[in-house]
Write a structure and sequence with these properties.
Number of helices: 8
GO molecular function: oxidoreductase activity, acting on the CH-OH group of donors, NAD or NADP as acceptor
Keywords: NADP, Oxidoreductase
Pfam families: adh_short_C2 (PF13561)
Number of strands: 7
Family: Belongs to the short-chain dehydrogenases/reductases (SDR) family.
Distance between the termini: 39 Å
Strand order of the largest sheet: 3-2-1-4-5-6-7
Protein name: SDR family oxidoreductase
Helix content: 40-55%
Length: 259
């Protein structure tokens, strides 16, 4: 392949967890624009189906939605079974589902801590594990991309979010560990670490406006990133253009963590 052809995902199959909206939706759209068939894996099946229909209509690819709880091994295995039944292969996994709970460490409940860790870290492990095992069994030289965060590199201020920070730091090291374990199988594992991204839910939340103003004042670019600004970096990691890239964490934060 030459030049731009290396970025093609023509005929490949990708699942995106948390794909119904936000970053997941933007990345799923980017994959589809490059030719991939898409599986939207989300707890919100109705919204997932809406997103899948939009992606299919706009890009001439197949797109389906599957209800999936990333913290439940049985649900994750059912996702893989559905992909096998529908497409017969899986080339790309974008393990993206995540949440954040802002609570001071001294007041954070056990339930709050475990909810964040279970979704953000255990959920990434279960979906990456299932995808990796499937790819290895099928002899597919696949790509797994995990959503970490700049919060895995720094401590965010002014909001307290120790569970989120710890979970995302864990995703980065999990990514490196899986990349090393699976290096000889042809399965590549990388992560992205977005900065503050202005998803529809973030922009529509009135309680976040003071925080957004503070973040923008602190940021070198003085703005939030847009979900679509993560499309090209994930396309690179998903495609053959990154064939020698594994175990990497790509920070996409508008230089927020540079100081």
């Amino acid at each position: 392949m030459k030049g731009i052809e290396k970025f093609s995902l023509q005929g490949k199959v990708a699942f995106v967890t948390g794909g119904a909206r936000g970053i997941g939706k933007a990345v799923a759209t980017g994959f589809a624009e490059a030719g991939a068939h898409i599986v939207i894996a989300d707890l919100d099946l109705a919204e997932g189906e809406k997103t899948a229909a939009q992606i299919a209509a706009a890009n001439g690819v197949q797109a389906v939605a599957v209800k999936c709880d990333v913290t439940d091994p049985h649900s994750v295995n059912a996702l893989i079974d559905t992909i096998e039944e529908k497409f017969g292969k899986l080339d790309i996994a974008f393990c993206n589902a995540g949440i954040c709970i802002n609570a001071p460490a001294s007041e954070m409940t056990y339930e709050q801590w475990t909810k964040v860790i279970n979704i953000n870290l255990t959920g990434v492990f279960l979906t990456a594990q299932a995808a990796g095992n499937y790819m290895i069994k099928k002899g597919i030289k696949g790509s797994i991309i995990n959503t970490a965060s700049m919060s895995g590199h720094i401590v965010n201020v002014p909001q307290p979010q120790c569970a989120y920070n710890a979970s995302k730091a864990g995703v980065i090291m999990l990514t490196k560990s899986l990349a090393v374990e699976w290096a000889t199988t042809g399965v590549r594992v990388n992560s992205i670490s977005p900065g503050y991204i202005g998803t529809e839910l973030v922009k529509a939340n009135p309680t976040l406006i003071p925080l957004i103003n503070t973040w923008n004042e602190m940021a070198p670019l003085h703005r939030l990133g847009e979900p679509e600004e993560l499309q090209t970096v994930t396309l690179f990691l998903a495609s053959d253009a990154s064939s020698f890239t594994t175990g990497s964490d790509v920070v996409v934060d508008g230089a927020f963590t540079c100081f």
